[in-house]
């Protein structure tokens, strides 16, 4: 049976043993990777606008630092818990290894519904969180970034707070910042653009025509909008999108720029068509997020939260290809069912690695004090995603395994090589000549 959400870390780690069967590394690497390096829980007192005091709980997890400083986002969400943050940090370790970046995995979160806070309260919470974890992070230690319900402005507040504590300007401590504060061009749509490059590589391999491909996108936030916009521009038929409130479906497809314009202006997803600033409603079916996952489409892109496709609904998923723009949208049981059905799943640790890749570019630019033009950022992102997609895809075909297992094998081999470079039991128990 599917594991409960609170056991998401155990569920994530369970995939290691399957990948180890195909990896060329020492067992010690798997032992180490089943345990996070460091776990921090903090309480954050915040003075609210009405004068009252609220105490929020926050976490930061550094999973593995063998290949470099840990790297990973900070999410503000009412359902954040330690198991989830540990799982996200674990996934970040492998995401960085699959993208071949000199980072390990980290993640953070605060238990809060940010929609209930004023902007001033949100700033106080953001700065208070950094004040509590300042000794746990740093450009050479752990580098946070945006995640669910955090954004560039929040990263700017956090970078500023860290710089005040250290009494020196430290832009490289956090990525995903506003451009004037040391952010990188191209970071805003990097996660969705990375998923788009994966789809374009599949397009070349399978020889399909974009206009014949029907696409559904669950989650119309940053990543979902970006991948939908890029696919729409290439002629793909995006027939369904959704946000946390539900979705819309139109057989002939949507004009994605129109949907994005209204969503970003009003914070509501509406079926519209816009010419300039004038928008009018169009006919479309209202559907639930659950219904979107089961539509008759060619490509399904989960770009929302974890555990969306489970053992219960996986048999009803009809898409030929699933591209995980979100972290952990499929459970282990869903994976097994979809693999048996022949569904190709491009896993999260590959499909959404565009975000951390451009975060790496931002960190590099901050440290060098030299900033790249947008064209260079996007070119290097394309090169990275295409190269690593083909590494995983070719390994999956060579070993006749699914792409998720292949991605973990690639990550395990790279992390395992780094661990072995420091010596394992095999080295220390070997007889000297």
UniProtKB/TrEMBL annotation:
NAD(+) binds at residues 191, 222. GO terms for molecular function: glutamate dehydrogenase (NAD+) activity; nucleotide binding. The record marks 147 as: Important for catalysis. The keyword Oxidoreductase applies. PROSITE patterns: GLFV_DEHYDROGENASE. Substrate binds at residues 71, 95, 359. Keywords: NAD, Nucleotide-binding, Oxidoreductase. It comes from the Bacteria. GO terms for biological process: L-glutamate catabolic process. The keyword NAD applies. InterPro entries: Aminoacid_DH-like_N_sf, Glu/Leu/Phe/Val/Trp_DH, Glu/Leu/Phe/Val/Trp_DH_C, Glu/Leu/Phe/Val/Trp_DH_dimer, Glu/Leu/Phe/Val_DH_AS, Glu_DH, NAD(P)-bd_dom_sf, NAD_bind_Glu_DH. Residues 184-423 form the Glutamate/phenylalanine/leucine/valine/L-tryptophan dehydrogenase C-terminal domain. SMART domains: ELFV_dehydrog. The active site is at residue 107. Signal peptide: none annotated. It holds the Pfam family ELFV_dehydrog. Belongs to the Glu/Leu/Phe/Val dehydrogenases family. This is Glutamate dehydrogenase. It comes from Blastopirellula marina DSM 3645. The lineage of its organism: Bacteria, Pseudomonadati, Planctomycetota, Planctomycetia, Pirellulales.
